[in-house]
Design a protein that fits this description.
alpha/beta; 5 helices; single chain
Length: about 130
């Protein structure tokens, strides 16, 4: 049975590159996900209503507060949404930090269905 647009979980996209942010949003909206977009980690963290977000797609290389620090702050605040880091050529230290936090990395360029497949897989897993 197919889910209606209104039953799919909300996805937050944090990306400072406007065309990429819009492309990710378009792709997720085409799959039926409601999308909330942010140009910075600060803008995301200023949003007072993040409890409905099921998945946070966060660019690692943001101008001020990077993606990993934003994820740590979301977790500190007890946000239930599951994070994904998107980045280009992640260094070993970032890979290790994400692994420790249980956060998947999807590498840019975002080819094919890699991000959408990661989101579907993440949301299909039971919450620990």
């Amino acid at each position: 049975m197919a889910l209606s647009r209104h039953t799919l979980p909300v996805i937050a996209v944090v990306e400072d590159d406007a065309p990429l942010r819009e492309a990710i949003g378009f792709s997720l909206t085409a799959e039926g996900y409601p999308v909330r977009s942010y140009h910075s980690a600060e803008e995301l963290l200023e949003d007072g209503d993040l409890t409905s977000v099921a998945c946070f797609v966060i660019d690692q290389k943001l101008p001020k507060l990077d993606g990993l620090r934003a994820i740590e702050e979301l977790q500190r605040r007890g946000m239930p949404g599951r994070p994904i880091v998107i980045t280009t050529r992640p260094p070993a230290a970032l890979r290790e930090a994400c692994w420790t936090l249980g956060v998947p990395i999807v590498e840019k360029p975002l080819l094919g269905e890699s991000l959408n497949a990661c989101i579907r897989g993440l949301l299909a897993r039971p919450v620990a």
